[in-house]
Specification:
Two copies of one chain form a homodimer. Chain A is 25% helix and 27% strand. The first copy, chain A, is α/β, with parallel strands linked by helices and 575 residues long. In chain A, strand 12, helix 10 and strand 13 form a beta-alpha-beta unit. In chain A, helix 12 packs antiparallel against helix 13. At the A-B interface, helix 1, strand 3, helix 6, helix 7 and helix 8 of A face helix 1, strand 3, helix 6, helix 7 and helix 8 of B.
Chain lengths: 575, 575
């Protein structure tokens, strides 16, 4: 500590001084011209005329505290932690609150351990370029209607949340359980609170008494607000509202209407789910800032949402501001409208410049997340559906992830349904324990001809989701996915294509550039199979087994009516 | 936790519902009409139509979160913890951050233990009406030029700060040591940070490099800002600024000029030193709110300074807001300009109404704080000063606590100075270990004829301070103080008067009403001794040995030149 005082008092040389910066002060909203002096990874002063071993000329750019992503599922990028970190850091992120909900649903706690270890091993210039606050997922499995790779009980939660590994409890999606007073859900929350760890929320449009009941449990955040009124009510009841800049789910434009000069301290920026292309091309929190400012939120308030507010909400000491005793996590940006990042420092070490990370890291390999696609051998016959009469059909709605229910008259030939025009088959195959569980239903509104597509990413249990118009091609897709250890697979006549997601069937260990290129390549091939306009060939499949979004979903256990919250038949019930 | 969810969802009766309230929301700055529902001491909902075992009709009054006093030396009220709590709570205070700096300088850690225990024993309706976050004083003794009753080293600090007893480290007044890189001071701060405990500051007008050095140590607050510019600079460097509403030291009027809609979250309200009369007649944080709003700070921002901001600064979970999961610490006030408190709830229990505490508590007695005035027997001769020539005289400046230096020609008769007109003697007698240490000097600007006054409250070491124009009356005052175990004493001709401060020589165990009456009585007697206009007879003495305020001070070791920071002679040095 004496060294820091000495450096602050100019009795000793600093390690780094960033000169000619417009230093944004998140406590006052002002910008000061001057120097940021760094010693031992910590900001020791804002001032002038420091002596230093190294100088960095900011050339008049703005210096901001590094951004904090308040809530992200890294797995949704399909990138390895190492590749994710490169993109994230190059866009100015210094800290993420990561909820490894996907990988823990596949691999259990070992999935979180893998993520943390992989991030920890990224070291450059003696520092971790990205700080990761890892949440313990609260909803594993997410619903009782599906087979996930692991289950984390309240008892296990109580044990795990005490580990340094875990920063807090991840988004409590099961809000019906919380407001219903369900013992298991409340015990999970209770264990986190007992250890003084934060509990994240997920409560779209929860209101009035139900919101009171959700908040009284001690849940502190929500990233699912459906509109500005929803935000205002959440803020009133003491939740922090996370403005989401995901790849499919954005709510900044609408929800920023609730931000004002009094309450801005209660808003945070987050990504939630963001794909590699968006991370690479548009960025992460930097992109959120740009959007927020484009919505006429003053830059000073927007920056607080990306920095100080998040640090306060999560109790991140030394983060979120440029001031003495704070970590020297500093981003230089060109302006406060586009927020184009030109340099990123982590604890005083330059870790990214001009949009490129300066570090790289070899992949951390763990058996815990390899070879996770375990299915019983499948044949074309397994995809037969002996349906006749009024069949219940899941209808994919374009430009979103909702589905509808419709009924179509069908007939069966040789024990298999004859697919009417515009309808294909959807199958979900359990892939964690090779149980042979398979759910099947009819799907309309999707398009697709002469083949099949499949993925091993399928919220939240990540079983195999396969769509096709032929049993043989669907079986071939299942086999391709098994062989690749998961990924995206396509069979179109003779053409076979697979992009392996070798890490838990969720993420790839290739470079970000390759992930983007390969995803685009296989998606373009799928487009040639006449998938309908407004439907993302693979990405829409990812949500078709998410049994919490209306109306119909398919899991390995069967077809789910989400509103009734039960498994239903593929044939219309006689009244 | 299930009970709370059940109450929030109206599946179960609440314990208390406050009806017809205008509920101030410190997250949004809005006021909502409705009910506050309480179960198990916690707010379970803001809404309507709750069932409850009890109802309280707020009759349209405003409901605010109970106030938090960010920094107070309870000892300065001269009240026992029990009597202090009654006044504090009746004025809407729910939590105080108490720095027992005075009593620890007299009694050591046992003094803090006494305070905590005395507060803890105040129980009413199953709750402690006042939550007390006890700081471990950082500067015991405050300077090397005086004999205090105890010393708390860095080593002892490291051990003590780990105890549940202590919430954080009290104001680090020794800023020269901090910015100078002094090992002992930095180790104290380091121990607190290691245990994740907050460190309070005290750094009047500290600026630029020195402020950087002070802040880099990790000090988080300052209540000594001298003006709005000082506030702005402290805020920029990451400190929270505490607006002070003490009895002698106010800075709200000036410092509130620095508060604006962006930075208001960084300001807190505190009392620091507040006497019983002010606490009783004007209040505590309620009075601070009134003053802040009178300075044109919007009530919504002012209330945040008294509640949420302080809770955030000090990490007080469940405090500072009216929202589900927060403690039911609720104040009803008539309006948002005068903030007249009409009812106070603690964890859902009504603890004060119409300015009166509903609880009382018998005094907790502890030997650790009794009989603390230990002096060697004194006689009139001990007050002799054999001075002749150009004598250095301490000049009391009216309406403040500064002193000046002047030189007056004096002569000696029979080994004692002949007091020139308008000059009396000042003596400080060590009273902790009966060492016989006595400092003496001449004092002008004070007035006083035909007797002597003395007190055992004397910042920061609390030795006996006696002023008088005759050796015999000064000796009598010393004896009166010894017999009373400390207090305020007066000898005026034949008249003798003493008001005992039997708790550590700092506080009285009588009721607040008596403390106020007796203080007034003895002060009025002193006024008759021709103490000058603008000089508070006893209260000005209290600061005459505070060896950190310019220009001259007297301790038991001798006369101190504060600017030179050394002991000097009572006779002008020859050049």
């Amino acid at each position: 500590m004496k060294m820091l005082a000495d450096a602050a008092m100019k009795r000793r040389e600093c390690d780094l001084v960033i000169k000619n910066a417009k230093i944004f002060n998140v406590f006052t909203g002002e910008t000061e011209k001057g120097e940021i002096a760094v010693k031992d990874g910590v900001i020791v002063g804002i001032g002038t005329d420091y002596g230093s071993a190294k100088f960095y000329d900011a050339k008049g750019r703005y210096a901001l505290p590094s951004f904090i992503d308040a809530h992200i599922h890294v797995e949704s990028s399909m990138l390895s932690p190492e590749e994710f970190a490169k993109l994230s850091v190059s866009h100015g992120t210094g800290t993420i609150v990561a909820d490894p909900h996907e990988i823990v649903n596949v691999c259990g706690i070992a999935g979180a351990e893998y993520m943390k270890e992989a991030f920890s091993r990224i070291v450059y210039g003696g520092v971790n370029p990205l700080d990761v606050c890892m949440q313990l997922p609260s909803c594993v499995p997410a619903t009782p209607f599906e087979t996930s790779g692991a289950a984390v009980s309240a008892k296990e939660t109580a044990r795990e949340i005490d580990r340094d590994l875990f920063f807090g409890l991840g988004e409590m999606m099961n809000y019906p359980a919380v407001i219903g007073g369900d013992d298991e859900a409340l015990r999970k929350i209770g264990s986190a609170k007992e250890k003084n760890k934060i509990v994240d929320g997920h409560a779209p449009a929860l209101s009035k008494d139900a919101l009171n009941a959700y908040a009284v449990a001690g849940i502190k955040t929500d990233h699912e607000c459906v509109d500005a009124d929803d935000c205002r009510e959440k803020i009133r009841r003491g939740l922090y509202v996370q403005l989401r800049n995901g790849s499919s789910a954005h709510n900044i434009e609408e929800n920023s209407k609730a931000v004002n000069e009094y309450n801005y301290r209660r808003f945070l920026l987050c990504s939630d789910d963001r794909n590699a292309y968006d991370l690479s091309e548009h960025g992460e929190i930097d992109d959120g800032l740009k959007r927020l400012v484009a919505c006429d939120i003053p830059a000073s308030q927007a920056i607080a949402c990306a920095t100080l507010n998040t640090a306060e909400c999560y109790g991140l000491k030394g983060k979120g501001a440029l001031a003495p005793s704070y970590d020297a996590d500093i981003v230089l940006v060109e302006d406060l409208t586009e927020f184009k990042v030109s340099a990123v420092f982590k604890k005083g070490v330059l870790v990214a410049e001009n949009g490129r990370a300066l570090f790289s890291a070899s992949r951390y390999r763990s058996n815990a997340v390899a070879g996770t696609v375990k299915i019983k051998p499948v044949s074309a016959d397994d995809f037969k559906m002996d349906l006749s009469g009024d069949a219940r059909v899941m209808r994919a709605v374009p430009n979103g992830i909702l589905t509808e229910e419709e009924f179509v008259k069908v007939r069966s030939e040789e024990g298999d349904v004859v697919l009417p025009n515009g309808i294909c088959k959807l199958a979900v195959i359990e892939r964690h324990f090779a149980t042979g569980n398979m759910g099947k239903c009819l799907l309309s509104g999707y398009g697709l001809r002469d083949g099949a597509l499949g993925v091993s990413v399928a919220h939240d249990s990540h079983n195999l989701v396969i769509v096709g118009d032929g049993n043989e091609s669907m079986a071939r897709v299942a086999r391709l996915l098994r062989e690749a250890g998961g990924g995206m697979a396509l069979v179109h006549g003779d053409c076979e294509k697979v992009f392996a997601l070798d890490i838990a069937g969720l993420m790839s260990s290739v470079s970000a550039e390759e992930v983007i290129a390969k995803t685009r390549e296989i998606t373009e091939l799928a487009r040639k199979m006449d998938v309908k306009e407004g439907i993302e060939p693979f990405m829409s499949l990812v949500f078709l087994s998410l049994a919490v979004i209306p109306k119909l979903r398919l899991t390995d256990r069967g077809l789910i009516d989400v509103e009734q919250f039960k498994i239903i038949s593929s044939i219309k019930e006689s009244l």
